[in-house]
């Protein structure tokens, strides 16, 4: 499953691109409606020129809606999956570790108040730290897909990977 995660954003964007709205944008309204619907809407009274302008306007509206939906879906996927892979954002994830915090240790998991779970992958230590609900910052490395967790007020960072 974890190997498929990088494909999730691409799959979602592809699905949006092939959505019924995108397909509708390419079809004139008279092909999308039954003859009865077309007549009931009064569109049969339009001239060919008026119908053409209506189709152009509908196409622009649908294109705008599809573009906005794709952008929102992309932003949502990137926000929900930060830490599983790097999307190019250098913004830190700032959250709290609810409850007692007893320092770093390889393999220790840190559940954040935003629902994310991170596991320490290196041997960094933070000896003697006994904190209650400390603020943490998780920042991506400059290169690669490494992430580092730092506790507010301490200089030591632990290399972590997101597990949930």
Summary of the model, kept short:
The protein is 36% helix and 20% strand.
What does this structure look like?
- The chain is α+β, with helices and mostly antiparallel strands and 164 residues long.
- It has helices at 8-17, 20-24, 29-32, 35-40, 48-81; strands at 93-96, 100-101, 109-111, 117-120, 131-132, 135-140, 147-151, 157-162.
- It has two domains: 5-81; 93-162.
- The chain has five helices and eight strands, in the order αααααββββββββ.
- A hairpin with a 5-residue loop joins strand 3 and strand 4.
- Helix 1 packs antiparallel against helix 5.
- It is rod-shaped.
- The model is unreliable at 1-7 (pLDDT under 50).
Q: Which radius of gyration do the C-alpha atoms yield? A: 25 Å
Q: Please bin the fraction of helical residues.
A: 25-40%
Which shape, going by the Cα principal axes? rod-shaped
Order of helices and strands: HHHHHEEEEEEEE
Overall structural domain count: 2
The poorly predicted ranges are 1-7
Beta-strand percentage range: 15-25%
Question: Which structural class should the secondary elements be placed in?
Answer: alpha+beta
- Strand tally is 8
Largest sheet: 6 strands, antiparallel
Q: What is the terminal-to-terminal distance?
A: 12 Å
Looking across the biggest beta sheet, what order are the strands in? 1-6-7-8-4-3
In terms of quaternary structure, what is this? single chain
Mean pLDDT: 81
